[in-house]
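Good morning C.,

I know you're traveling, so I'll keep this short. The sequence:
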Amino acid sequence: MNSNTRLQMILADTPIDIVLPAIAQLNLPNWWLAGGAVRNTVWSSIFGHECGLGIKDFDIAFFDVEGNRSEELAAKATLTEQFPDDQFDVKNQASFARWRLGSRTYTSTEDGITDWLHTATAVGVRLDTQGQWQFFTPYGLDDLFGGIIRATPAHTHNLNAHNKASGFLRRCPYLRLA
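The tokens, ready to paste straight into the viewer:
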């Protein structure tokens, strides 16, 4: 079984599988569900209930050069109305550098996700127009499946990456630092 198939099998019948069709209905340009929801769902599946990392929110990244914050807020409001018990973080990667100090301008959604702090967090999933799963895994899936916390190349000396890694280790003792 290839890594993408394994990832899809782990995410099937989880909250991710439930929210993906709703996200797809928003028709956000070049969107991906990525980040902690994907990572923590996989780690909880692999390491069990002792791994205290649940879904805090659903990180949805998209790219629209012409878009503004109202597009993000409207998407978040729509999803929150459908799933009132869940949190959604919807961010246009095209405008990220305008409001996040120290961020560089991204050229695509994939460019933004590739720049996230950890390799196991830089994993995106989405549904295409036919409802088929698609995957974006710029660093592969070995770290995600192996419970390895590794900073992405741009963040190897980033204090935030180190601090987040420490938090992951406190909540899930089966993880390892690379």
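Safe travels,
E.
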